[in-house]
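Technical annex B. To support the medicinal chemistry partners, we prepared a structural model of the target in complex with beta-D-glucopyranose, based solely on the information shown next.
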Amino acid sequence: MKRRNARIVLVLTCWAALGGISGRAAGEPLTPVALRCEYRVNPSGIDETAPRLSWRVASKQRDERQTAWEVLAASSEAALAHDNGDLWHSGKVAGDDTTAIVYGGRALVSGEVCHWKARVWDKDGKASDWSEPAVWSMGLLQQTDWKGEWIGYDKMRQIATNTAPLFGAKHIPLLLPPPPCLRKEFTVSNKVQRAILFASALGLADFHLNGQLVSEDRFTPGWTDYARRVHYRAYDVTPLLRQGRNALGAILADGWYSGYVAWGQKRDRYGKKPRLRAQLQIDYADGSQDIIASGPDWKAATGATTSADFQMGESYDARLAQKWSESGFDDGKWDSVVSGAEMKPVMEAHPAPPVRVFAEIQPKSIRRIHPGVYVFDLGQNFAGVARLKIKGEPGRKITLRFAERLNPDGSIYTDNLRNALATDTYICRGRGTEIWEPRFTFHGFQYVEVTGLTRRPSKQTITGLALSSATAEAGKFECSDPMLNRLAQNTYWTQRANFIDIPTDCPQRDERLGWMGDAQVYIQTATLHEDVQAFFTKWLVDVEDAQRQDGEYPKVAPLIEGENDGGPAWADAGVICPWTIYEVYGDTRILEKHYQSMARFIAFCTNRSTPGLLPPEKFHCYGDWLNINDETPKPVICTAYFAHSTQLLARMAAALGKTNDAVMYNDLFERIKAAFNRAYVGPDGRIEGDTQTAYVLALSFDLLNAVRRQQAAQCLVENIRKRGWHLSTGFVGTKSLMLALAGIGRNDVAWRLIHNDTFPSWGFSIRQGATSIWERWDGWTPEKGFQTPKMNSFAHYSFGAVYQWMVENIGGIQSDGPAYKHILIAPQPDDKLTFADTTYDSIRGPIETHWRKVGRHFRLRVTIPANTTATIVMPAVDVSSVFEGGRRAEDSPGVKAFRWSRALAEIEVASGTYDFETK
Ligand code: BGC
C-alpha cells in the first residue's frame, strides 16, 4: 500500500523504527532480531512478573531454523555487556520457540530495570552472536508502592457554556470546565542516576517537567472501567532533571472519566472530579532515593487551555499562557489542591501502546466559502486534530470546525456528528507566528473549516495530525487496480482512526465506544494492518470487566450504563477476539486469562436456550446490522453464533490442554449444530430467511454436512446472482462473505463483488470519493444524498473486513495453524489484475508475495521467514512447467516436496526467498 506520499509523512510506528530490528541482521547467518518484552519494544514500567520475551530470527539463507536459544538478563548494561546474567541465565535451551519465552530468573521487584539479550543456534548447531541488547523495566508491583495521593482542583468545574443549537436539541448549556494545571517544585542536590515518573489519572493528564512535556503520548492513562482499575505509565525523565530547583506539573483534563462520553449529551459517567496520581522516583548515584509524590502540597490554577473535551473540542487563550511548569514560577496566588478521589481503583501498568501522532497531513486544497471562512481539504478522512499556525492581533479568535464530508455548496457537513460539537478555538496572543495543537480532544475529519483569519491562509496554516494507538505497522498491499488499492488504504485509515486506546465504532459523532460486534467482525483484518496483540490484551480486560454477573458479555466495553446485553454476534467478541489473538500470535496466556470468563459466557448462552438449544422467544439481537433489504432471522444468527463460540472454546480448551473441556464443548457444538439443522435448514439446503448472511454463517461456522454445504453454497451464489451480482450483507455477514465464497471455491463470484462499483459495493463508496470505510453502504448516494444524520459515520471499519480476503486471496498469504509457523501461500489472481505485492509482518518475521502476469507466464516471488515453512500453491498448466530461479522447481534448494494436480502446483518449501515462474 502506498501510504508514503508527499502530503502524508508517517511517524515512527514500525518495529524497525522503534529500534526493534537492527540492520545487522542482513547477510548474517541466523540472527535474533526485533527483541520484545510482552510484545512491545523496550517497554517501560510493566507489571507482569513473568514477562514473555520474544524475538525473530533473520537469515538471508534458505532453509534456516532455530534449534536452540539462550537468554541473558542482567541488572545493568555493564553486566550484560560482560555476559553476566545476574537476573537470569537461561542456559542453552533446545527448541525453536521464539515467541513466548517466559522470563525464568530471580523475582523482579518494583522499578527494576532488566537488560537482556538472546542468541540462537541454527539448524547446523552453529551459535549466532548475541543480539543487540534490549531492555524492560518493572512498574510499581504493589499497591502500597504508591506514595502519591490522588489530587485535583475542583473550584472551576461548574462553568456552563452556552452553545449553538445541537442535533435534536436547542441551546443546551454545556459544562466545559477548564482543565487545571497542578504543580510542585523540588530540589535536586545529588548526582542523579535515574529518574522515573509513574503517572496516572482519573481523567487525562499531560505531565510537564521543567517546562517540557514529558512524553508525546496522548490521552494517558487511557480508558478503563475506572471504578475497578486505572492504568499508569512510567517515563524515564532522567534527561529532563537538573541540579537545583525543578518543577513538576500536569494539566488534568476530563477525558473519558468526566467529559462527554457516548450519546445523550451526558458527561461525568465515572465521576465529577478528575484526579491525577504521580510519583517521580529519583535514584541518586550514591544509592539514596527521593520520591516526589502528588499530595496536598501541590498547587493548582487554571491556565491557557480554557476547555477540553473529546466530543466538544478544545479551546486555548494564548494570552493566558504562562511558564507555570518551570521552576521559579510564582505560584503564590495559586490554590492548594484537593486530595482524595471518588473511587479507589486498582493501579495497573498500561499493557499496550500509547496513543500518538502517526502521520502529519498537509492540506490538498483550500477554498474560501464566505468572507473570512475557509475550508481545508486534507484529502484523507482520519482521527486526530489540526495544528494551527497563524499570525493575529492579540485577542483574535480563530474557530476550527471539523467534518468528514462537504455539503453540495462546499460548506462542511456536520449533521452526522450529532451532539459532538467538534469545535476548537484559539485566541491569539498577538506576538509573531503562533502555533497551537490541542492535546485533549480528537475529531474524525477530512475537512477543517477555519473562521476568523484576517488574511488568506496557506497550506501551512493547517496540518492534520493523525492519532492512533501506536501499534506497529504490519502490512502493505498494492496491485494493478487503483480501486482495490484505495480500498486497502480505506480499511487501514479507518482502523487507525478507531484504534484509540480501545477499538471503537467511530471517531467523529457522540459515540466512539468499544462496540463488541464491530471489534469481532474486524479483529482478524486488524492484525493484517498492524500488530495489535498488546492492544487487544488491554481491551480484553475491559471486556471481562464489563461482563454481566450471569455471564453475558456487553454491547460495548468499557461498559456504558444500560448496555450490558451484547446479544448474538456482539457478545461473542468476548470469545472470538481472544481466539484470534491466539491464532495470529500464538498467545496462550490470553486464553488462560479469559478462559473462565468465556466458559461463563457459554454457560449463559446454554442457560438462555430452550432445552433443544434454540434461542428463547425473546432476546436482544441487533441482527445483521445495516444489511440491504436482506434481514436474516435473529434466531438463525443467535444459534449460529452460539455454535461458533462453543466450537472456538472447544479449540481453546484443546490448545490449553484441557482435554475434558474440549470434549465437552465439542459435544455441545455438535448438538447446537444438529439443532440448527433441524430448525433452520431445509432438505434442499435452503436456510431460514434465505439471506446471504444466513448462508455465509452456516458455511463459515461449519454448521452443515457435505451435501447441505453444497446446496447452501449454490443458494448463496444464487442470491448474489439475483441481486445482479451484488452483496446485501450487513456487519455480521460481510465479515465472512468473501471468505465463504473462497471457501466454496467461488472466488469468481468474490471477484465480481470486489470489482463492483455500483450500489451496494465497496467500489460504490470509492466512486463517491471515500477515503475511509463507511458505516453504511448508502452513507451518501447521488439520488438521496446523505443517509439519516442519526447514524451515518464515514469511518466505521466493519465493512473493511474485506481486507482479510484481499491478503489471503490476492496476496495469497494465510497462516496454516497458529501463529504463522506453517504458512499457506496461494494467490488466486483473476483476469483483471496483472500484479499484486503483499507483505505481512508476522510474529515470526515478514512474509511477502509479489506476483506478475506476463502473457501466459506467472511469476511469484515469495519470502518465508526463517524458522517457518510454507506450502505454496500456484497455477501451472502441467507438471514440468514450474521453475524457480531458472531451475526446475523440484530441484531448487529449500524445496522439500513438489506435487501437481489439476492445473495447480503444490510446493512445500523451507524458509527463504524464492522466485517461481511458470512457463
Ligand atoms: C454503532 C455500531 C454498533 C451498533 C450496534 C451503532 O450505533 O455505531 O457500530 O455495532 O450501534 O448495532
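Notes passed to the chemistry partners:
The radius of gyration is 28 Å.
The chain has 15 helices and 54 strands.
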